């Protein structure tokens, strides 16, 4: 692969892998810096997670006004969000608009998967291999997404199923008509919980195979009025400023007192308020909710009362109430009528803790019933079984740095990076929302912009100082991961078997993969390190 107008030493300055929210902004920013950029995307167009996750009911759990780019005020002012929480089609339309407006597609080669990236220490050059050739670059930026590799659990017999098999994260573009069909859904995370009510509207029957119940809170979604949109557009600067200082990348803050510092009536009022804000925002009710087990227990009890109040059959409610994790330590699902769906006769819940799946057959899913095997006959089987999160896409490529060190091998005993941005032994290789950054705990649009801006500033610094490379010092990287672990231990996050710790993928080393200290603190720490002359990095 040879590109026109490319510098002589490498084909391009930067290769960007991925055309999701992060990769799109990366090519825009790097081009603006005067760098030559080549992006690769395995899908046929931009959008990343919003390109693939087209299942019915897919909707963002961060408010649309916050889950949008901040880098261009013109863009902020011209785009009108129709609802408080945008649907997948609306977010994809927005990303297409951004791609058109900033002419981003010309920097990407689509339908092209990157399989390898190797660093040559002598020349300081990365050689990136795709399924259509190789290209050399000075810098490699992996914007491959934290939730981009679909997880199919190893349930025996999937290939034997005679009906249709679907995965929420690989949804067919033409959509699926479930009318008259018997549908099975495995998985009750955010994807399954959003999908089930929509499928139940069409299907003849829906059988939900639930291994672990999840906390889910109504989205309190609604159309935005012209007045609200005007107000949001007029106050964007302040909203973004607060979001960048906050823990979760949105302007919401918890109540000023801890859970047990207020009386019961006040506590109930605060819970009610944050419950009505909708979805994940309930996690912010009290500052100690995700740190103190007693405080968390009270929040759980409030949530349990709310959930029970909308489910008619108490035995079904018993099965739908989570008991295995503190509320908020797995991402709280933002739903639209999920629990009420079980009040319909044609929707059935199968509790896999009591009656586990034994195998998939040609006709459906066989479980171990109390009196022997029971077959649930199905026409369609939907896997809503999540992702090999945070490291999946990176681990799927053959990435080799200094001395041939491979990234998958470096992470075999547990993931490690410095600031979630770079990995020791991999010079000039940058991650966007990598392990050790707040990413998925915050607002992925703002965290992506933040990382891309840091990478852009760092490349400019190297160029202006006549330096050839940057990489973290091993000790600094270990220190950063130890800090992430120390902060995680101050929270209840590590008490849940979540994808945050890799527990959903058999054999994945258990490491809390995010920086849990909040987006604002992360930004401050990164700034301090950078301002101190890239402390903990080796610049050569
Ligand atoms: O995936 P998940 P997801 N047998 O990993 C079950 C974001 N997101 O796609 O808990 C039976 O959360 C598994 O059960 P268990 C959001 O950050 C956001 O739903 O392992 N079941 C679980 O119930 C979210 O957290 C939005 O026991 C099996 C489910 O599959 C993240 O993506 C929308 C199984 C997987 O849940 C991932 O969500 C969608 C097996 N062998 C996603 N293996 C919004 O913005 C797995 N499961 C709203």
Radius of gyration: 24 Å
The DSSP helix count reads: 15
In whole angstroms, how far apart are the ends? 29 Å
Number of strands: 20
Specify the structural class: alpha/beta
Task: Give the overall pLDDT as a whole number.
Answer: 96
Helix content: 25-40%
Shape: globular
Estimated share of beta-strand residues: 15-25%
Residue runs with pLDDT of under 50 for 5 or more positions: 1-8
Bound molecules: 3-acetylpyridine adenine dinucleotide
| Largest sheet report | 8 strands, mixed
Structural summary, described in words:
The chain is α/β, with parallel strands linked by helices. The chain is built from 15 helices and 20 strands. The chain has helices at residues 21-32, 49-52, 73-78, 88-101, 190-202, 226-234, 236-245, 264-277, 293-310, 314-320, 392-395, 407-410, 444-464, 474-489, 519-531, and strands at 12-17, 37-40, 108-109, 114-120, 125-130, 133-142, 164-167, 182-186, 205-210, 216-218, 333-335, 347-351, 357-360, 364-369, 372-377, 380-383, 398-400, 429-431, 470-472, 537-539. Helix 1 (21-32) packs parallel to helix 13 (444-464). The longest helix has 21 residues, at 444-464. The protein is globular, with a radius of gyration of 24 Å. Residues 59-61, 147, 153, 155, 168, 186-192, 194, 209, 211-212, 331, 334, 352, 384-387, 440, 499, 504 line the site of 3-acetylpyridine adenine dinucleotide (N01).
């Amino acid at each position: 692969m040879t590109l026109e107008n490319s510098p002589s030493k490498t084909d391009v300055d930067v290769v960007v892998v991925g055309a999701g929210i992060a990769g799109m902004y990366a090519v825009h920013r790097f081009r603006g810096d005067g760098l030559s950029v080549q992006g690769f995307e395995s899908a046929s167009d931009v959008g990343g997670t919003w390109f693939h996750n087209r299942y019915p009911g897919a909707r963002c759990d961060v408010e649309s006004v916050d889950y949008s780019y901040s880098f261009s005020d013109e863009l902020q002012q011209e785009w009108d969000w129709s609802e408080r929480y945008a649907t997948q089609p609306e977010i994809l339309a927005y990303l297409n608009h951004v791609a058109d407006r900033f002419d981003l597609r010309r920097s990407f080669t689509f339908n092209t998967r990157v399989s390898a990236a190797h660093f040559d220490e002598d020349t300081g050059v990365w050689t990136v291999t795709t399924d259509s050739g190789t290209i050399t670059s000075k810098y490699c930026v992996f914007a491959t997404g934290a939730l981009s590799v679909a997880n199919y659990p190893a349930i025996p017999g999937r290939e034997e199923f005679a009906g249709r098999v679907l995965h929420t994260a690989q949804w067919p573009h033409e959509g699926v008509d479930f009318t008259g069909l018997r549908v099975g859904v495995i998985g009750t995370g955010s994807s399954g919980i959003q999908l089930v009510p929509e499928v139940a509207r069409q299907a003849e029957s829906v059988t939900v195979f639930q291994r672990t119940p999840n906390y889910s809170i109504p989205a309190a979604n609604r159309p935005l009025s012209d007045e609200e949109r005007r107000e949001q557009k007029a106050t964007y600067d302040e909203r973004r400023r607060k979001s960048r200082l906050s823990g979760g990348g949105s302007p919401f803050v918890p109540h000023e007192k801890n859970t047990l510092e207020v009386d019961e009536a006040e506590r109930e009022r605060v819970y009610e308020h944050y419950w009505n804000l909708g979805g994940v925002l309930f996690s912010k009710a009290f500052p100690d909710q995700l740190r103190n087990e007693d405080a968390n227990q009270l929040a759980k009890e409030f949530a349990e009362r709310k959930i029970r109040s909308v489910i008619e059959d108490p035995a079904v409610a018993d099965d739908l109430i989570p008991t295995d994790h503190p509320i908020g330590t797995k991402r709280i699902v933002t739903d639209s009528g999920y629990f009420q769906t079980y009040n319909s006769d044609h929707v059935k819940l199968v509790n896999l803790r009591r009656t586990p799946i034994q195998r998939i057959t040609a006709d459906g899913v066989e479980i171990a019933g109390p009196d022997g095997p029971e077959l649930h006959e199905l026409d369609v089987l939907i896997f809503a079984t999540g992702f090999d999160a945070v490291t999946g896409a990176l681990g799927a490529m053959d990435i080799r740095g200094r001395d041939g060190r491979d990234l998958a091998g470096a992470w075999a005993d547990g993931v490690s990076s410095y600031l979630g941005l770079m990995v020791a032994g991999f010079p000039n290789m940058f991650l966007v929302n990598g392990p050790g950054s707040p990413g998925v705990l915050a607002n992925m649009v703002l965290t992506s912009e933040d990382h891309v801006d840091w990478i852009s500033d760092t490349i400019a610094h190297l160029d202006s100082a006549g330096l050839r490379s940057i990489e973290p010092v091993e000790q600094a990287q270990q220190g950063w991961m130890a800090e992430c672990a120390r902060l995680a231990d101050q929270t209840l996050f590590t008490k849940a078997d979540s994808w945050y710790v890799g527990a959903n993928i058999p054999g994945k080393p258990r490491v809390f993969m995010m920086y849990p200290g909040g987006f604002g603190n992360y930004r401050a720490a990164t700034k301090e390190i950078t301002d101190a002359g890239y402390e903990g990095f080796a610049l050569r």
